[in-house]
Amino acid sequence: LGSARPSAAADPTPLPPDQAQALATAPTDTTGSTTSVVDGQTALNASTLPGSQTSIESGVSAQAAVGLVPLTEGNIVSAMRPVCWANLAWHQWGTWPYQQRITNTAYWCAVYGSHITYRSASTTTSGTLCATNWRQTQLIGGGVGPGFTYFTLRSSAGFSCPTIIPWITIHTSHHEDVKRNDRGVTTFVGSG
């Protein structure tokens, strides 16, 4: 697949522009995702990771949003505590050594089957020869709080891939859209 790596002992070197372009823009794209249940403290700690964007249900403490203390709705203490999940979702474009990968890591909590109470997410990128010019995470659908049963994040990045000619660089940009819901389900909904 696109992530296969030849068994060469030396680090790869840049290729001529036409070959680099073909590998960097090859139509081989792969995806992967893993989701697991996590405790509330782990979810809360994710908000301190570099580059993380965090949202907490309005009017609720961070500890209540992740289930460490009971939720209160008005003056009533809810019997339901949020459940939390962690998900790592990645999408990769191009072929080695010109592959480009975007990984969105999200931690979120929800009153199961009711609404999202907390989310924290960050985007990382990687590649063998291709460097990252920029990256970002955007909320493009749903949200946090009563009425929001899901949220969709777009993780995007720009890459620069060198060739053997120092002044010719291949530039690409990509995105992945990942939807997560109040039942711990993760779904890829778009990429480009």
Give an account of the 3D structure.
With 192 residues, the protein is mainly beta. Helix content is 9%, strand content 50%. The chain is built from three helices and eleven strands. The chain has helices at 17-24, 40-45, 62-65, and strands spanning 30-38, 53-56, 72-73, 76-77, 83-93, 100-111, 115-126, 131-142, 150-162, 169-181, 186-191. The strands form three sheets. It has a five-stranded antiparallel sheet with strand order 1-5-6-7-2. Strands 8-9-10-11 form a four-stranded antiparallel sheet. The longest helix is centred in the N-terminal third of the chain and has 8 residues, at 17-24. The radius of gyration is 20 Å and the shape is elongated. The chain starts with 16 loop residues before the first helix and ends with a strand. The model has no long low-confidence stretch (mean pLDDT 92).
In short:
With 192 residues, the protein is mainly beta.
Strand content: over 45%
The global form is elongated
* Biggest β-sheet: strands ordered side by side in the sheet: 1-5-6-7-2
Q: Which structural category do the helix and sheet elements fall into?
A: mainly beta
What's the total helix number? 3
Radius of gyration: 20 Å
Main sheet record: 5 strands, antiparallel
Mean pLDDT: 92
Q: How many distinct beta strands?
A: 11
- Determine the fraction of residues in helical runs and give it as a percent range: under 10%
Compute the separation of the termini in Å.
Answer: 18 Å
SSE order:
HEHEHEEEEEEEEE
Which residue ranges are poorly predicted, with pLDDT under 50 across at least 5 consecutive positions?
none
